[in-house]
Design a protein that fits this description.
Blueprint: H1 2-6, H2 24-28, E1 49-56, E2 63-66, E3 69-71, H3 73-76, H4 83-86, E4 90-96, E5 103-105, E6 110-118, H5 127-132, H6 136-139, E7 142-149, E8 152-159, E9 167-169, E10 187-190, E11 195-196, E12 201-205, E13 209-215, E14 229-231
Antiparallel strand pairs: 1-4, 1-14, 2-3, 4-13, 5-12, 6-7, 6-10, 6-11, 7-8, 8-13, 9-12
């Protein structure tokens, strides 16, 4: 496949051979062999991608998008009341390029207590959009998965983007934009039986996009890497 060669994708990591994929979209959502992404314990990276930013948050903080452009945690989470528990936590902003497998996994073990679907635009999440679209991550469509864990509350925010018109969840029957002509307001779904293990698949989207993870009262104990920094799902954050 020309695409795989252009992006120098290691095809040996996938569970299927190249001729078994029906389309580029099918290839984007490929599964990887478990042995190439061992899942660590504790708090782990939920995706293959690039760690763009890491911030230790404070109450009411204006979170930098790029120089001169900011957004708030409350805006990111669609005004959900659980944002108050996360306002002094930590935030990781991760970018998935077209070369990455496009699944999102649980960064912690715990109980999925709530899902929030926040309709919005589908701007790209590339450098042009970061510099041009005010509050990009609060303007684009989002699905927020709230996980209650031994480490506190964790929010996994799946951000839609151009050519990511559908975000499908694996722990509940929700897929966005299956009927794009139907307009939605913010929808909230509460879960009574949503146990998840670290590394369980939470969702999938197409093409490149971003995932933002916010953890309650979590502070990094290791030195921060120089950003941006390449990461793989399953490794310690």
């Amino acid at each position: 496949m020309v695409f795989a060669r252009a992006y120098a994708i290691d095809l040996t990591t996938a569970t299927k051979s190249l001729d078994q994929y029906r389309s580029i979209g099918d290839f984007f959502t490929r599964d990887l062999k478990p042995e190439v992404r061992p899942i660590g314990e504790g708090f782990v990276c939920p995706v293959d991608g690039m760690l763009r930013d890491y911030y230790e948050l404070s109450s009411g903080m204006a979170i930098p998008q790029v120089k001169g452009k900011h957004y708030t945690l409350e805006q990111l989470l669609g005004g959900d009341p659980l944002a108050s528990r996360l306002e002094r936590g930590s935030l990781w902003n991760l970018y998935l390029s077209p070369s990455d497998a496009h699944h999102i996994f649980a960064p912690v073990a715990g109980q999925i207590i709530k899902t929030v679907h926040i309709p919005g635009k589908l701007w790209p999440v590339n450098d042009w959009a970061l510099n041009s679209v005010e509050g990009l991550f609060t303007v684009n469509e989002r699905i927020v998965t709230f996980i209650e864990s031994e480490r506190g509350l964790v929010a996994v925010v799946m951000v839609g983007a151009t050519n990511v018109g559908r975000i499908a969840l694996h722990y509940t029957e929700l897929e966005t934009n299956t009927k794009p002509w139907v307009k939605h307001s913010i929808r909230t779904f509460k879960h009574s039986e949503g146990a998840t293990q670290v590394g369980d698949k939470l969702g999938t989207f197409r093409m490149g996009s971003s995932v933002i993870v916010v953890a309650e009262a979590h502070r990094a104990t290791q030195l921060r890497p120089q950003l941006p920094h390449r990461v793989r799902y399953g490794e310690a954050l």
